[in-house]
Amino acid sequence: MDGVTSADVEEVFWKYTEVAKLHLEDARLKVNELCSDFEPWQLISISVGITIILAWFYNWLRHPLRTLPERIKTSFFKFFRSLPIVRSMIRKEIEKSTYAVAHSLNKMKPGETYIKTLPEKGLSEDKVLARIKTGYQAMDDIDWKSGKVSGCVYGGTDDLSELCAKVYKDFAWSNPLHPDVFPSIRRMEGEVVAMCLSVFNGGSDSCGAMTSGGTESILMACLSCRERARDRGIEFPEILAPMSVHAAFDKAAHYFHMRLVHVPLDKKTHKVNIKAMKRRINSKTCMLVGSAPAFPFGLFDDIEAIAALGVKYDIPVHTDACLGGFLIPFMEQAGFPVPPFDFRLKGVTTISADTHKYGFAPKGSSVILYSNMEMRRRQFFVAPDWMGGIYASPSIAGSRAGAIIAACWATIMYMGKQGYVDSTRNIIQTTRNMITELKKVEGIFIFGEPEVSVIAIGSNDFDVYRLFGDLTKRGWSLNNLQFPPSFHLCVTLRHTTPGVAESFINDVKTCTAELLTDPSAKCQGSAAVYGTSQGIPDRSIITEVAKSFWDACYSTEDLEPASNGLHK
């Protein structure tokens, strides 16, 4: 401004400084006056207390793993459950449910009891085998060989069973934790990974590892992405995955202190909403996930679009092919092309695929594949300062069953590329034929347009769990789903045998026709439990019931009435 010198500005500055000092002095005197009635120890206590409260409140508001609405909901239900009358009611219901589960799992013959102590003298081989046959195998009353089980056993043919039994015998005591002692297992594991990489179009730097199953493969992928994020200064990274993604990602987030952000599905296609995924990407996002296909509805997420997001934002992309891993690579040759999903897509960083599903290897074996070695190294664990020596392991387990690796290798070699193409053709053609016929059934609908081997069924006319219950009574073992109410059949090699698919379709037609005569009737029996559980807003109660289920699975106690309390 004209006429204003630096001296004038300096004079104004010092005038305002003096005024500010006067106000600060006035404030100091007023604060001292307010505190004059308190002793020094009281002032210190109040200051410390307020600091602790503010710090707790700040951390509560900014929890890195759960959102504010989630924590408010959890806090409310926790308080509600703490009320004596509510706590008592919940405990009684959980005890009742646990007793019912334990009772249903106990399939021993009358008069039989659990063995709880070592036999004084060992039994002969004949007696051991006889006891297994009469006292244990006799309990397995569900005939999975008949093809009435959804998923679970994906191959199980007699020729593969005999082959794996012979291989297992030769490698029963092998352990890949000691590659110097068992170099054969080290080689077999490397060759299984290499063959899987060739199937998923891996590049020159691609690599992988074998695991005990799909869950461990997913855990390893998430761990690698977490370590990459922490190298970049992200303490609590976030996984972006569809609502339909496998629960193993929830498990990984729980174990590794990550946050799983679920992306909604498209209401028409039931596949992940790509635009919604893009909106949720932020500075903490460490991993994008797509399923090929997803477990609930058997639908193929748009892996190509997800991979493009990964490239754009420099975020690793995981293709979860645990379920369809040994179908989708062969579908094009079998005459059923699917969208791109593997390492041919630039953004795809990791792929999980289960060799013990449609690879037909024995449980449990799976592979986790990486586009580069840098990512795989992040899943390795090393304890360099252990007194027992330098300890290093490639995955969660230390010792592993070398016989499973050998049996997996033998299965893949026995099947060969053409064997997998043929089995894929049979399974996919059977699935497509079943979908065509089921779409003709009045009263039910199929979720989306299944491209692989899963058929999910819902109904707008009656409680679909009634249909699930009626099919269960007819000997079918199916997979219950929730949100929305539904169930699915995972088609396997067992369903391609003559008459099995036709039997399922006819049973669905018959049961549905009966249900439509009284569509408003309530669901009864065990099938009603699943429908009722979806209406319980406090999901921690469902968690307690599920934990009680596993308590019952491990129980070796004789059952007593629920009113007398539950055994451990």
Describe the protein.
There is one protein chain. With 568 residues, the chain is of the alpha/beta class. It folds into four domains: 6-73, no CATH class; 83-141 and 542-568, no CATH class; 162-415, Aspartate Aminotransferase, domain 2 (3-Layer(aba) Sandwich), CATH 3.40.640; 417-533, Aspartate Aminotransferase, domain 1 (Alpha-Beta Complex). The chain is 47% helix and 10% strand. It is built from 17 helices and 13 strands. It has helices at residues 6-35, 40-61, 68-82, 84-105, 125-136, 158-171, 183-199, 214-231, 248-256, 274-280, 303-313, 373-377, 402-438, 464-473, 500-516, 527-533, 539-554, and strands at 207-211, 238-242, 259-263, 285-291, 317-321, 348-353, 366-370, 381-383, 391-393, 445-446, 454-458, 479-481, 486-490. A seven-stranded mixed beta sheet has the order 1-7-6-5-4-2-3, with helices on both faces. The protein has a four-stranded antiparallel beta sheet with strand order 10-11-13-12, with helices on one face. Strands 8-9 form a two-stranded antiparallel ribbon. A hairpin with a 4-residue loop joins β12 (479-481) and β13. α6 packs antiparallel against α13 (402-438), α7 runs parallel beside α13 (402-438) and α14 crosses α15. It is globular and about 100 Å long. Residues 561-568 have low confidence and may be disordered.
